[in-house]
Amino acid sequence: MREKMAQGTLGAYVQSFPSFLVDVKTYEFPFGVIVPFAAKPGVSAHFDFGAGSVGFTAISKGADSKRIPTLLGVLDYLAAPFATEERLFLENGAEGTHHKRTGDGDVVLTEKGNAEALTTAMPLAFLANAPEYLYLPSKPDLTRRIHGWRQELLKIGQASPVIGHYSDTNADKGTSLTKALNDGVLDIIAGRKSLSDFDGLLRSWRSGGGDRIRREYEDSLASEKKGKQAK
Q: Is 163 within the bounds of a domain?
């Protein structure tokens, strides 16, 4: 997708925000963000916030107790916050090899840095990472534009009420159910199916496990509410 954007053969594509930041560091073609808009007057557009994390890193119960402090130390290093030497190295590699400093102290990746530092930083971030920040070395104008787009998304953003809750059925069938529904929606968008086919897609999603997922989340939400009231 990124290569097609750079070549000018693709006008837009869907991307996660962390990967988007890697893209804007790697490629020089003009970037933009399409803020969701309403299909017709009187209808409000919405933007769905992410879950805030993609998972967690665990240390096995069977791990050698003598190694646990070392493993925790590694994770602590990977979670170093912005503006620390550790974070500078994790994101931009070694100075003189992967990045260099400009006269005002900004960081500029070298060719080797673009090839090695960026591709290494992303997988490491899935083990442990710092609180999110927005910093694009040597690209202050683009940084300001991205900040502006995020402010617009915040105005129409909505968080899922089930973040932090668990559904057995969703863990077992959620991915396949969502894929089948999304594939059907893409067929409608591409003209391979008609809009009237959506009702059937939704019925299949509900009967295949969607209704059960909803009930399990509703039960979890009710249990949480009851627990708070008891306090």
A: no
